[in-house]
């Protein structure tokens, strides 16, 4: 699986590389200026407008991957989430794989390129296992959980919301049969994993998990806080 991800990272980088010769010696990425007209190229070299559904999906997954980097840096600083940092890094690699797949629409791509960027079902199996691994250590949910519970937990919950948007951005491609349904399934499961990781960060950092209670009135708000590490076995 990791070899497959590494291969697709190279493919994604290749589809972004437009003209190495024209940019030789420049201290900037290759291909600068090729999107100035509002269009860009997919991995199959097809030019499309940047607000095309495929580029919207690519942008959403790229934003998600970038924010996972923010979450990973925060988790690293906590000192209690080394395994979570590793999981987030692997998720970023998986998103590179998703991006390579999205950038190769089957209707306009060669069989060779489709084969190189075909979605790997093993990623879905892996993410389901990660959900179970972290979720089994958490207390059951009895009320709606609000985003919060410390900086890392809040960032992971924010990443979950970005992941939901990335998932929605892939739906138009699924309708047009331009994406493997497993790619959408993977993003859906990723949002579940990020939710679980947010609760995990809250528990390990011994911060309070804020849960929703219906306010008595707009002038007399009463909220309940739970500390996960004290209620782990509830």
TrEMBL record:
Membrane-spanning parts: none
Q: Name one GO molecular function term.
A: ATP binding
Q: In the UniProt record, does the keyword ATP-binding occur?
A: yes
Keywords in alphabetical order: ATP-binding, Nucleotide-binding, Transferase
**Single Gene Ontology BP term?**
cobalamin metabolic process
Which SUPFAM superfamilies does the record match to this protein?
Cobalamin adenosyltransferase-like
Known catalytic reactions: cob(I)alamin-[corrinoid adenosyltransferase] + ATP = apo-[corrinoid adenosyltransferase] + adenosylcob(III)alamin + triphosphate
Looking at the keywords, is Cell inner membrane present? no
Q: Where is the Cobalamin adenosyltransferase-like domain?
A: 34-200
InterPro entries documented for this protein = CblAdoTrfase-like (IPR016030), CblAdoTrfase-like_sf (IPR036451), PduO-typ (IPR029499)
**Role this protein plays:** Converts cob(I)alamin to adenosylcobalamin (adenosylcob(III)alamin), a coenzyme for methylmalonyl-CoA mutase, therefore participates in the final step of the vitamin B12 conversion. Generates adenosylcobalamin (AdoCbl) and directly delivers the cofactor to MUT in a transfer that is stimulated by ATP-binding to MMAB and gated by MMAA.
Subunit field text: Homotrimer.
Concerning its family, UniProt says:
Belongs to the Cob(I)alamin adenosyltransferase family.
Q: Know the name of this protein? A: Corrinoid adenosyltransferase MMAB
Q: What is the protein's species of origin?
A: Caenorhabditis angaria
